[in-house]
């Protein structure tokens, strides 16, 4: 193909969606057909899926299970980092057996490898550790007591008969769990996560994130686990998945590998490139302007544009470009006032992780699952702190995600405390020293550690626009979608690019759909926006 026939594509953002789009365009000789440029605002890749390195330890921002009911995504991951073919360090130490990939790499020798992991997550509530998702196990019933269990049971039965209109997240949860369990395990945690009461949040969030999860779903899952036939993950509701894959050095390792693969195949990757203007002509996007930290500006022209930047920022960048007289004559125009109003009002929840390296946890492993450490640690990947008496939302135990995330995995425990906040609020603006002190005090009150001296090292990481939120002007987001879709050569992908709280696999799927549209010339973008809107995507195959 003659070089003049190549299509130029500019991709905004080097997170999962942006890098997936780049690879989908360039793989299998795509460099002969597409001239691809990725513009990344920071110097890191993976967005919220990156891995932060600190003094020999690695922190997974947010925690990422590599699991999808979309076989395209599972194959994509496995082709990037092959599955382990020999036991990992903790597999050996704990005499743990699971299926190995024939011919797969040895994690003790090779770095580019995906581990097979087993998920354990529990809820911390009223100084008790309960199953997550909440289940009617002996431990739960014992922690709740007979009277509370009966109240919760009758409350649930009432919810089965009397359904509330699902016009907000509160009613969505009550319909599935009953008012009592909702008030105990969902109301306070949801308000902690979003900074809003569930009655103010769209039910879309629940419909997307927990889909078919309910008391009946939990009970069905518990019963089926007792059966001798081993189920495939595709048969299990996503929120209940217990087995998953995980890169040896955390999720960022996968995206760093993808970025390297893209560059080697011909993609131009530019860091320190914040998009500040999006210019248009004849109803299409004609170019974007980036600004580096030193103020240097660069204009990037292309035939096609794929954006994973926040919708709010994208519309602002279109407006920032302005429309001159010549452009106006060709039909170019700034965003309508109503669209700008909706975009500016789209809310986000920001995120702080406080990593603490401790010499041991005060918690006793009361499960039958063997763990590393001396003394052994608890087996949890996550501990959900659904007790409203604490600001921390979740605690990650990085040792259990991958032993290779921890420099001295036998003698130290590397944990991450996840706090939900807003950029600029009191917690966000805390000094790192004060944030660490706050986290330590919460752990001591919870009984997770005994004294401040148990903490050997710490690191605070802040993440802007981590979670697109479903309130304020969100109920009018279709106005923004219609406006952006009016640019025939602009595709919005990913979590922030669509203002949708997608999992990593869904973000990747939006990018794959967008690239398919570019390759096929499909005009509609409905397939790009419809990823993760069909309930069956999560629940069945």
TrEMBL record:
Pfam families found in the cross-reference section: Amino_oxidase
Any one Gene Ontology cellular component term annotated for this protein: cytosol
InterPro entries: Amino_oxidase, FAD/NAD-bd_sf
Stretch list, region Disordered: 88-109
SUPFAM superfamilies reported for this sequence: Nucleotide-binding domain
Ranges of compositional bias, category Basic and acidic residues: 89-101
Molecular function terms, GO-annotated: flavin adenine dinucleotide binding; oxidoreductase activity; UDP-galactopyranose mutase activity
Top-level division of the source organism's lineage: Bacteria
Residues covered by the Amine oxidase domain: 17-446
TM annotation in the entry: none
Name under which the protein is recorded: FAD dependent oxidoreductase
Organism whose genome encodes this protein: Bifidobacterium angulatum DSM 20098 = JCM 7096
């Amino acid at each position: 193909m003659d070089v003049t026939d190549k299509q130029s594509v500019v991709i905004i953002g080097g997170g999962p969606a942006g890098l997936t789009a780049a690879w989908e365009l360039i793989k299998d000789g795509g460099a002969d057909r597409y001239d691809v440029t990725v513009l990344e605002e920071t110097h890191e890749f993976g967005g919220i899926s990156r891995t932060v390195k600190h003094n020999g330890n690695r922190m997974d921002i947010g925690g990422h299970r590599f699991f999808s009911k979309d076989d395209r995504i599972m194959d994509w991951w496995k082709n990037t980092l092959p599955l382990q073919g020999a036991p990992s360090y903790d597999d050996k130490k704990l005499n743990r057996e699971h299926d190995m990939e024939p011919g797969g790499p040895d994690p003790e020798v090779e770095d580019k490898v995906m581990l097979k992991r087993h998920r354990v997550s529990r809820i911390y509530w009223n100084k008790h550790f309960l199953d997550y998702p909440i289940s009617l196990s002996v431990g739960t019933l014992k922690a709740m007591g007979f009277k509370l269990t009966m109240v919760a049971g009758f409350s649930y039965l009432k919810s089965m008969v009397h359904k509330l209109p699902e016009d907000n997240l509160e009613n969505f949860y009550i319909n599935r769990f009953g008012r009592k369990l909702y008030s105990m395990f969902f109301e306070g945690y949801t308000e902690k996560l979003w900074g809003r009461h569930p009655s103010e949040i769209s039910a879309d969030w629940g419909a997307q994130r927990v889909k078919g999860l309910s008391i009946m779903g939990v009970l069905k899952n518990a019963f089926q686990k007792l059966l001798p036939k081993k189920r495939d993950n595709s048969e299990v509701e996503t929120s209940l998945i217990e087995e998953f894959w995980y890169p040896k050095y955390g999720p960022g390792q996968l995206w760093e590998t993808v970025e390297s693969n893209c560059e080697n195949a011909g993609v131009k990757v530019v860091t320190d490139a914040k998009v500040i203007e999006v210019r248009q002509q004849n109803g299409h996007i004609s170019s974007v302007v980036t600004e580096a930290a030193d103020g240097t500006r660069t204009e990037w022209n292309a035939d096609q544009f794929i954006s994973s930047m926040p919708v709010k920022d994208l519309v602002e960048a279109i407006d920032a470009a302005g429309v001159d007289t010549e452009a106006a004559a060709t039909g170019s125009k700034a965003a309508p006032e109503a669209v700008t109003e909706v975009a500016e009002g789209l809310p986000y929840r920001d995120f702080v992780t406080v990593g603490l390296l401790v010499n041991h946890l005060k918690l006793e492993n009361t499960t039958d699952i063997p763990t590393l450490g001396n003394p052994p640690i608890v087996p949890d990947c996550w501990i959900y702190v659904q007790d409203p008496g604490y600001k921390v939302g979740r605690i990650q135990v990085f040792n259990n995600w991958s032993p290779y995330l921890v420099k001295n995995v036998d003698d130290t425990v590397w944990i991450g405390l996840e706090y939900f906040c807003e950029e600029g609020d009191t917690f966000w603006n805390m000094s790192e020293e004060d944030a660490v002190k706050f986290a330590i005090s919460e752990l001591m009150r919870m009984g997770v550690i005994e004294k401040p001296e148990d903490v050997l090292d710490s690191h605070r990481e802040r993440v802007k626009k981590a979670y697109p939120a479903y309130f304020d002007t969100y109920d009018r987001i279709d106005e923004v979608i219609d406006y952006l879709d009016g640019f025939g050569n602009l595709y919005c992908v990913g979590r922030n690019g669509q203002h949708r709280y997608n999992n990593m696999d869904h973000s990747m799927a939006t990018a794959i759909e967008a690239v398919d549209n570019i390759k096929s010339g499909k005009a509609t973008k409905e397939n790009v926006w419809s990823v993760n809107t069909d309930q069956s995507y999560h629940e069945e195959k």
